Amino acid sequence: MNGLRAVVVCLVIACATAVSPATAVSPATAATSATEADAAAAGAPTTVAAKPSWSALPVPAAAPPVTVSDLAARGPREAWATGYEQAADGTRPMLYRWNGTAWSRDATFPGAGEPGRLGKVQFVGDEMWVLHNDREGAGEILRRSGAGWSAVPLPRTLWTYQDFAAVPGAAWVVGEDDTGLKVLRYDGSGWTAQATPDGVRYVMGITARAADDAWAWADTDTGTAVLRWDGTAWRDAKVPLPPDSNVHTILLEPSGRATIGGSQYTGGVPRTYLMTWNGRAWRTTHPPLGDTYTEAMVRGADGALWLPVRGDRAFRSTYARVDGSRTSYSYGPERTNAIDVKPRALARAGSSLLSFGTVEIYGSKPNLMSERLGG
């Protein structure tokens, strides 16, 4: 009888993970239910474990409407969020720091009081690096260390600064200028312009695991392709992307695992796909995420993939947790009179998850919001 009960419980939990966000069981709820069921099947008294949940974190206001660019965390006591706000003379860069307790605005970086924007933020050794461009379009990498701020100017001004990646010993900026596609690489002493394979029209994003291991996704003459830098040249990585698909992001991990997120179009209708490289082969799945933009996807401390998705509940944000074939959902705290709650970026901060984005309250322009899962 106990064995039959355990089988029934497992079937119930498995079915619960495949339902829509409106009726899905959160990861914490599913884990608690399974623990209680196992205890009951064994004839032991059940205890209810504390369930982690999303909580709202106050963020000092910016001049709305604001745009969030990126969020990166080094651990539970240090995270940085970037973006730009509106001012009378155009956009103005904004930088926020999380110290493990609260968010504060940082205005000490070069160009903080001048028109411009901040883009992607990365940790490189003991430093924090962030891509910055001013009103005239000139770009630079701002670096923050224990000694303060320094800047590495880009060798040329680009029309578009599409993406940025940095690791110890190397950094890349991709974009376009009046001569076309540009892939710029910094080796610690200077910049070089790198060639891409024939047929590459535009590089949409870039990420790196080491100075001789960088990945990019590009638009080519034959469709979307994944490129890889091996320390010598950029080459087509021959990733078997789904037909009629694009790439939103590539998540590289120290273990060697890589995860690609994007959309595949079937009959003109997009749906999210995930591809995972385990060191030997690619595996493609289509979790029930609808048409979710996967740029903010991160690997949580629990080993699962987490990403914000389009919500189905009024006044609240929605987060998906993808663990193999199981997808479940959890929800941020209710925000009174919120028209739209949009977590824009997500980062693992120790055993917790941090989100940073915007919230639009009825009658106001979008301003900043942040939430945390766990404590």
Strand content: over 45%
Q: Which shape, going by the Cα principal axes?
A: globular
Query: What is the H/E string?
Result: HHEEEEEEEEEEEEEEEEEEEEEEEEEEEE
- Measured as a percent range, the helix fraction is under 10%
Strand order in space, largest sheet: 1-28-27-26
Q: Major sheet: size, sense and barrel closure?
A: 4 strands, antiparallel
Number of helices: 2
Helix/strand structural class: mainly beta
Distance from N terminus to C terminus (CA atoms, Å) equals 39 Å
The average pLDDT value, as a whole number, equals 88
Q: How large, in whole angstroms, is the Cα Rg? A: 22 Å
Q: pLDDT under 50 segments (min length 5)?
A: 1-49
Total strands: 28
Structural summary, described in words:
A hairpin with a 2-residue loop joins strand 2 (67-75) and strand 3 (78-87). Helices cover 8% and strands 53% of the residues. It has a domain at 1-51. The chain has a 4-stranded antiparallel sheet, with no helix packed on it. A 4-stranded antiparallel sheet has the order 2-3-4-5, with no helix packed on it. A 4-stranded antiparallel sheet has the order 6-7-8-9, with no helix packed on it. It is globular. The chain has helices spanning 2-16, 27-41, and strands at residues 54-57, 67-75, 78-87, 90-98, 103-105, 116-124, 127-134, 139-145, 148-153, 160-167, 170-177, 180-186, 191-193, 200-210, 213-220, 223-229, 234-236, 245-252, 258-266, 269-277, 282-285, 298-299, 305-309, 318-323, 326-331, 338-349, 352-361, 367-373. The chain is mostly beta strands. The protein starts with a helix and ends with a strand. The chain contains 2 helices and 28 strands.
